[in-house]
């Protein structure tokens, strides 16, 4: 495919790294000079001004920040037959479509940085054929029925940061007790990651519910001191904006 990337922040850069090996001709915008130069050196992408990116591409991946996307897209000329994927969580598909016509916005797609290596979860709303062809071989695509529902998924995925923080703090505590710090963190990351992948949460919780066991006792302490109620309150706050 002839693919153009408008905007080159963390996620867009990771997407380029994840698809660069698939034989596409990729042109990226020059806005983020350091990222663009590295991608050109490591993956052979072409770096160009925004309009040249559009002109060179049949598929455009738009990953501009909320504060500049209207001005940036509004100053460009698109053509009939181009397909656009938005990586922007804020603007609606309709808002982007109004700026890129006569090109067609096929989907809003929200991956994670791990898409650079493959194995990312990808939240996607819209038409799935192009998204699956481009990203589906090495990643898990979760098709979401509407942009309103996608907003709920965006809220729920925010549990990742608190979960990572808990693992980091537990690893730091373990290191304070004398364990080697790097091994402490690696052990807990692998333990939590493999346990979550091995079975659904309810089954894992049942397996970790030995009466009087360490897992049961710590979980009960955290629930009793407000962990789950604070989580629900935080999700509602995110949902309400």
UniProtKB/TrEMBL annotation:
<dbReference type="GO" id="GO:0055129">
    <property type="term" value="P:L-proline biosynthetic process"/>
</dbReference>
<dbReference type="GO" id="GO:0004735">
    <property type="term" value="F:pyrroline-5-carboxylate reductase activity"/>
</dbReference>
<dbReference type="Pfam" id="PF03807">
    <property type="entry name" value="F420_oxidored"/>
</dbReference>
<dbReference type="InterPro" id="IPR028939">
    <property type="entry name" value="P5C_Rdtase_cat_N"/>
</dbReference>
<dbReference type="InterPro" id="IPR036291">
    <property type="entry name" value="NAD(P)-bd_dom_sf"/>
</dbReference>
<comment type="similarity">
    <text>Belongs to the pyrroline-5-carboxylate reductase family.</text>
</comment>
<protein>
    <submittedName>
        <fullName>NAD(P)-binding domain-containing protein</fullName>
    </submittedName>
</protein>
<feature type="domain" description="Pyrroline-5-carboxylate reductase catalytic N-terminal">
    <location>
        <begin position="3"/>
        <end position="88"/>
    </location>
</feature>
